[in-house]
Amino acid sequence: MARHPEAALHPGAEITDGGHRPSGGGSSATLIIPTFNEAENVGELLARLAACLPAQDRYDVLFVDDSTDDTPAVIERASRACPFPVTVMHRDVAEGGLSGAVVEGMKAATSDWIVVMDADLQHPPSLVPDLVATGRRTGADLVVASRYAGGGSNSGLSGRYRIAVSRGSTLLAKGLFPSALRGISDPMSGFFAIRRSVVHSRADVLRPLGYKILLELAVRCRPRNVAEVPFTFQERFGGASKSTVREGIRFLAHLVSLRTATHGTRMLAFGLIGLTGFLPNLGVLAALTALGMHYLPAEIVANQFGVLWNFVLIDLLLFGDRRGHRSLGNRLGRFALLANTDLVLRVPLIALLVGGAHMGVLPATALALLATFVLRFLGTELLVYLPRRGRGRQDRPAAARQRETT
Ligand code: GDD
Ligand code: MN
To answer: Which class for 304: exposed (0-12), middle (13-18), buried (19 or more C-beta within 10 A)?
Structure first.
């Protein structure tokens, strides 16, 4: 992965060559701030941090930057007036987007506590010391700044639509992960403090994808005790949100990937998606036979609609984190080839069921689709989404490459 050497911007900090950041000389907390084109905000953010971080608690501030504007230069200028070390880890390839940036920062941190916050001042800097102090006082592994804990509020979210989306995704996540998210009223929050030991002990299982880094950490690292501090989500200070509809799809893919970490649940999800493919398949089949087409060619045409439908859902939702090693065309080609090989096996089976067992065309098709399902699942895992030998991990996060085109 291409990554610029980190630039250590404060005279007190060392310059390192990309693998690890300065040791921080025993700093008590590392503040990780992901940035993507936040030139309008980072100066004000650093000034407010300088005003509120207690001098006795030694903080290292680490920006993990994927910007294409002059954010790093603005940070550099502003950091000169800061009493704490400020480092920018600029990435040429934005692997894993926002979450990928945070995880990279976490891997480089050496302090006991890690705090994550946004750069746009929607997260009040004055709360940073409270988060760490609460963790120390309560012995918690994770302290979440929550908009939904008593006294918190979402007032900075612009518009009813965003508020509804935020509420809906919170409910969805809590419903899917009732035990991992127990005690976390705001799993969508991007503002929290976590003990480094909790992240580092499970760092190899993290598969960051998209915006919801806290969700990833809560589900995969399972911090034992969780505390919350209420806060009011502020308006953005300057610039515009980087969140897009694509981010929403990535969030759904993230949920599916967290929920289907085992082979069994993956197959179940594959089956459920496959079931929805009956709709376009049988619908087109019914239409074509109604138009007078013989059912056998109609099966072939109808199958293509089912294949395309399934491919889109499976590729986006189920294998969203495992598709970076092949191009879209390659994946669709392989997927369609598998599905049609399956059809070649299925058509004689359907002919047998219709001709021999006198079943109706639709039930015979449904039965044959079910019969070939397991073969298709295994084929898809092995032939479409299994990383090529020796090229596995680096190729994994497709999200990174997509971000460049967003
Ligand atoms: N390094 C990096 N790479 N940083 C990124 C990227 C990226 O690809 N995309 C966004 N960021 C940074 C932004 O620069 C900002 O500092 C922070 O991540 C949050 O991005 P926003 O664009 O401000 O997102 P938001 O306001 O919609 O989302 C925030 O609120 C959510 C709660 O509603 C984030 O805090 C989310 O984490 C949080 O869940
Ligand atoms: Mn924001």
So the answer is: middle
Tokens of 318: 């189920």
**For the CA of 122, the nearest atom of ligand 1:** 26
Structure confidence at residue 11 as a pLDDT band (50, 70, 90): very low
- Residue 160 Cα to ligand 2 midpoint, Å, equals 16
Dist CA 51 CA 48 (whole Å): 5
Number of domains in the chain: 2
Q: 281 with 174, same domain?
A: no
- Give the closest ligand to the alpha carbon of residue 243: 1
* Residue 8 β-bridge partners: 87
Give the residue numbers spanning the domain of 117.
5-240
* Token representation of residue 104: 């990279």
Q: Quick one: which atom of ligand 1 is closest to the CA of 154? A: 33
Q: Is the pLDDT of residue 315 over 70?
A: yes
pLDDT at 27: 64
Please report which confidence band the pLDDT of residue 142 belongs to, taking 50, 70 and 90 as the band edges.
very high
Q: Is 211 in the pocket of ligand 1 (CB under 6 A)?
A: yes
Q: Examine the domain organization and report whether 289 and 180 are in the same domain.
A: no
Question: If you measure from the C-alpha of residue 243 to the centroid of ligand 1, how many angstroms do you get, rounded to a whole number?
Answer: 7
Mean pLDDT of 359-382: 84
Q: Is the minimum distance from the CB of 64 to ligand 1 under 6 angstroms?
A: yes
Q: Are 314 and 376 contained in the same domain? A: yes
Q: Take atom 35 of ligand 1 and give the residue whose Cα is closest.
A: 190
pTM, whole model, 2 decimals?
A: 0.74
Find out whether the beta carbon of 326 lies less than 6 Å from any atom of ligand 1. no
Could you tell me if 71 and 126 lie in one domain? yes
Judge if 189 and 312 occupy the same domain. no
Residue 170 has pLDDT above 90, yes or no: yes
CB-based neighbours (< 5 A) of ligand 2, an ion: 120, 122
Contact between 109 and 117 under an 8 Å Cβ cutoff? The reply is no
In a domain, 57, yes or no: yes
Tell how far CA 252 is from the center of its chain: 9
Q: What whole-number percentage of the chain has pLDDT above 90? A: 57
